[in-house]
Amino acid sequence: MEERTLKEILQNHAPKLPLPTKKSEPYRYFDIEKLLGRQCKWTKAQKTAPKQGKSLEITDGVLTRIPQNVEVTFSEERELFSEHFDPLYFVSHALSQEVITLEFKTDTVLNIEHKFEEKGALRAYRLVFKVAPNVSVKIIERFVECGSQESVVLQGFDLFVGRDARVEIIKEQTLGNDAYVPIHSNFIKVEKQASVKLFTFDFGDGSGLELVDAHIGEEAQVVAKHLLFAKSSAKRGTVSRLIHDAKGARSEQVAKNILQDGARGIFDALIEITHNGAGAKAHQNSSAVLLNDGAYMASKPQLVINIDDVEASHGSTIGELDEDQLFYLRSRGIVYEEAKKMLILAFANEIIDDVSDKAVVEAIHLAFERAYYGEGQLECIATCHNCEDMVLGER
């Protein structure tokens, strides 16, 4: 199969859609032109009949396993949000062979495992989550690299949350230096008095982006919390837009970033309160710890407010570990490296411990420890080789 650059593939299969450049705001800090120049191959994924299992499993963009209690449909029709800020949101829709749709009509806890096994390939697929009114849903996503070096993944979800529904989405992704590069472009629409909590945990020395476009309805709420630990030469982070377009809409966004070696962290986040957003409350904060001189944080929290009757704040801090805290720990007989690790773990735990599911918290702690230490204090119970028991909260 002939390899071509990613840019050539996208231009050939989605010729009418614009591609991002280094001047495109969502990709300003990401080095998108280098990614578009990567050599890869693209073919239609070969569908197989999915098996039954405890979790929903997607391998190289193909649904391979479905739990008994989950209703899944496939469609070639796409419900697009025409004003999405990310060009690759539209490209990922255009290249997806079909949309995988999950409708939640009763309270549900769902584990989703995304596996990537194909080397040097482009894979694009979309998930749609539709949550009925007054329903509570928890979705736990884990992304597993199984030999997919030099691949590119254009993926994401479209989430539609009915009135008074409650949704929690937890995403964990650890990338090695030679792993696939993921661009996750997501759209969220939250109806009246509903709530969404989104947690993203991004670890390792591979590059990738999480892009979120959320629209918050009347008296609805979105809480987004992001933890990033990047090392080596990774370029990794979150680009988001949260729009309050109805009375009493609320949002809270917190990002904590730990950067090592020559890694670059990205937090480019906009909160917009429109003329319809009277009584809105919006709070946004990014903090970063740089572990050495070569690490870099691109932090750009932004507020656009078009009405007076609101409560809003935003802020950003970038610095090193607190020398006074390090001195205090060392004065208690703790060696420097251990004291440093204790402060880093405490910083990370402020996000990890906000997750409501204790089994998931334990799994995220394990993933963070492995990324930071190179090993975990817990015994791993999940592999990428047909293991039924996912590390993220199987019951």
Could you describe the 3D structure shown?
By secondary structure, the chain is an alpha/beta fold. The chain has one domain (4-320). Helix content is 16%, strand content 44%. The protein has an 11-stranded mixed beta sheet with strand order 3-5-4-8-10-12-14-16-18-20-22, covered by helices on one side. Strands 6-7-9-11-13-15-17-19-21 form a 9-stranded mixed beta sheet, with helices on one face. The longest helix has 17 residues, at 336-352. The radius of gyration is 20 Å and the shape is globular. Mean pLDDT is 91; it is low at 376-395.
The counted number of beta strands is: 22
Q: Give the rounded overall mean pLDDT.
A: 91
Strand content: 35-45%
Number of helices: 6
**Measured on Cα atoms, how large is the radius of gyration?**
20 Å
Helix content range of the residues, please?
Answer: 10-25%
Task: Pick out its properties.
globular, disordered C terminus, eleven-stranded mixed beta sheet, 6 helices, nine-stranded mixed beta sheet, single chain, about 15% helix, about 400 residues, alpha/beta
Quick take:
It contains six helices and 22 strands. The protein is α/β, with parallel strands linked by helices and 395 residues long.
